[in-house]
Amino acid sequence: MSSDNNQTLTTRQGHPVSDNQNVRTVGSRGPTTLENYPFIEKITHFDRERIPERVVHARGAGAHGVFEAYGKVGDEPIAKYTRAKLFQEAGKQTPLFVRFSTVVHGGHSPETLRDPRGFAVKFYTEDGNWDLVGNNLKIFFIRDPLKFPDMVHSFKPDPVNNLNDPERMFDFLSLTPEATHMVTFLFSPWGIPANYRQMQGSGVNTYKWVNSEGVGVLVKYHWEPLKQGIKNLLQKDAEKIQATHTEHATQDLYDAIERGDYPEWELCVQIMSDDEHPELDFDPLDPTKLWPPEQFPFLKVGKMTLNRNPQNYFNEVEQSAFGTGVLVDGLDFSDDKMLQGRTLSYSDTQRYRVGANYLQLPINAPKTHVATNQRDGQMEYKVDLAPGQNPHVNYEPSSLGGLKEAPKAGKDHEPHYDASLVRQRIERTNDFGQAGDTYRAFEDWERDELIENLVGALKVCKPDIRERMIGYFTQADADYGRRVAEGLKHADAQGGSGSADEAQASQYAKDNARGTDGY
Fold first, then answer.
1. H helix runs in 84-222, sequence order
2. Is 57 a catalytic residue?
3. Which ranges are annotated Basic and acidic residues under compositional bias (predicted)?
4. Given 64, 105, 129, 135, which residue is catalytic?
5. According to the model, what pLDDT value does residue 186 have?
6. What is the 3-class SS of 292-316, one letter each residue?
7. Sequence-ordered list of residues with C-beta below 8 angstroms from that of 10, at least 6 positions apart, any chain
8. Confidence band for 131, pLDDT divided at 50, 70 and 90
9. Which of 30, 60, 246, 247 qualifies as a cystine partner to 101, CB 3.0-4.6 A?
């Protein structure tokens, strides 16, 4: 085909389209006939352009980049702790894709809303994909996955009127004391990062590294911004941005990469021996807790640079699919209950949302050898055959030319368990200690913003919900609880109680709308 014809519009069947302006009709005024194949193909595809939105992390932006390993963890050889190949050699580069997101709100919600931010990284390693799925904040609201659907439901709009209601959220949180630490971060300026480039990332959960001898250690992952730094927004500034732009963070990321100002993050880990650590006043597997950096320092292992924007948002950002169970050899799971629950939920979501063959899409497919005995399913467009594999054999073991097991890369990690099968929470909960530490570590302006934001949300809540939350804040720090209580008393005296900003905005629209006689 000549280059002049390469721009010719066709149907999905490859038929050239000579008239893309008019459907086929009986006369110029119609009716339209049913055999309008180009129209039928076009409109029925249009009807199916959207896949189910993510229940959480629906609003997102993404970029391609590269990870460069340092070959060490801190000053030690990294092989001491993990045999994962992508980390071993200084200067080794691994391509990757990152998707940033907001968590609770829908796909077209403003990027200025108070919300954790997702920070998911897909490494296309020589051993297959590794997904490091986390958030910008280093902790979480809950420690047991059984409560995750309840938590999200309480944060989402009311199922009857579809309105967001802070009373529903704080009803749940006031009965979930371990959330106090996360609430302290979320309602401080840390709850609204300035953009995606200038925020931290964290794996949140505890994972394991495994070396060639099969010895495991506990690890936490942290992404620390390099040249771009960390910046957060006050509520009033976020509202000013939202008044004129609801996609500022997506634009900021895209524009920075387009002009060659590539954002960079350093990957750091904290390492802890794989045991219960009775010397700590919390369980190291508890995702509502931080590991004290003075005891478990941040150790640098590599650098990520984002240097290429997606060519198509839907193909690469919306259809990108991440899961906490996507690990390569040398990386492993800890017994963190939330991690175990996420590992089922995340990949199951992608099978439902994108389809059973979502891993064949280019954005999700490994950039290395793939050969499986999995077959068929909606939208399969190739068979994962190895060179020379007998296509008649889709099972293992086989003596007829089927796939064979890979040799082991090192000794298996075999943690020992000797306990009863129970339904119990962890013993060392310490729900308020770190929340108090965080409150006291904030600067004055951060504490002021925290109190103002909490008062603004809690003033619409029933007295018993307020009292429970004030009780939690007081247990974290006496000044913390006192300031929230005083702020609520002042709001009540000003007539603020029970008068949500959303209701005021609705009334403002009624009072200031301009009438018209129609047309």
1. 148-155, 166-173, 180-186
2. yes
3. 405-416
4. 135
5. 98
6. CCCCCCCEEEEEEEEEECCCCHHHH
7. 16, 17
8. very high
9. 60
